[in-house]
Amino acid sequence: MNSKTKSFTERVFQSAAPIWEKNHLHPFVQGIGNGTLPEDIFIFYMKQDYVYLIEYARLFAMGAAKANTLDTMAKFSQNLHETVHFEMELHRQYAAEFGISRKELELTVPSPINLAYTGYMLNAAYSGTLTDLVACLLPCAWDYREIGLLLKAQNGDTILSNRYEKWIHMYSSNEFISMSQWLIELMDNLTKGLPEGELSRLEKHFLTTSRLEFLFWESMYRQDSWPI
Ligand SMILES: Cc1ncc(CN)c(N)n1
């Protein structure tokens, strides 16, 4: 397939492949899949991810504000609702199991990488177009879906006795898959016919947030927080 017939998401799926492969093989991700990830690391991640998701949900709210059609506005608002009420409920449930209150979750101080990641997306979304916003948040939704499906396929029935089963179930669920599929299709519609200069700016956003995904796994695994 030449670059003229390739859709934007086919193009970035290829260019981000080496980064995503590193995400999929990361010991944090593999440790969720086979249930060996130490609990203290998972708790650290859960708390950080909760405050990450507050900003991620804000991007959906901004998507609704910048939407060019009523259908797109409605879909962003639905994704905002699902993030706050379903995805974040997963975190609240795990937190309750580990004796962490909802308040404590919400008061988590974002780590340096967490702040760099959400700050990058929010800055691009505030100063750019709807397409910049979607280019930034697409790897978050799409690569988590890839991870959910991969871990499910890799670990078969052993998942049922895995303490992180609910996590894998969430990110391989039909609801999560169709949400990320909607974003993929939206991105292809928004980028149809754009000049190469714009496409490469959008690809840069996609690759940057893919790399930030990697740094997020890495820093959660090390439980990095502010040194001073
Ligand atoms: C860091 C991160 N990236 C993506 C997702 C999937 N919404 C998440 N929960 N956390």
Automatic annotation (TrEMBL):
GO terms for cellular component: cytosol. Gene3D superfamilies: Heme oxygenase-like. InterPro entries: Haem_Oase-like_multi-hlx, Thiaminase-2/PQQC, Thiaminase_II, Thiamine_Salvage_TenA. It is an enzyme of class 3 (hydrolase). Its EC number is 3.5.99.2. Pathway: Cofactor biosynthesis; thiamine diphosphate biosynthesis. It catalyses: 4-amino-5-aminomethyl-2-methylpyrimidine + H2O = 4-amino-5-hydroxymethyl-2-methylpyrimidine + NH4(+); thiamine + H2O = 5-(2-hydroxyethyl)-4-methylthiazole + 4-amino-5-hydroxymethyl-2-methylpyrimidine + H(+). One of its GO terms (molecular function) is thiaminase activity. GO terms for biological process: thiamine biosynthetic process; thiamine diphosphate biosynthetic process. Residues 15-222 form the Thiaminase-2/PQQC domain. It comes from the Bacteria. NCBIfam families: salvage_TenA (TIGR04306). Homotetramer. Catalyzes an amino-pyrimidine hydrolysis reaction at the C5' of the pyrimidine moiety of thiamine compounds, a reaction that is part of a thiamine salvage pathway. Belongs to the TenA family. This is Aminopyrimidine aminohydrolase. It comes from Peribacillus cavernae.
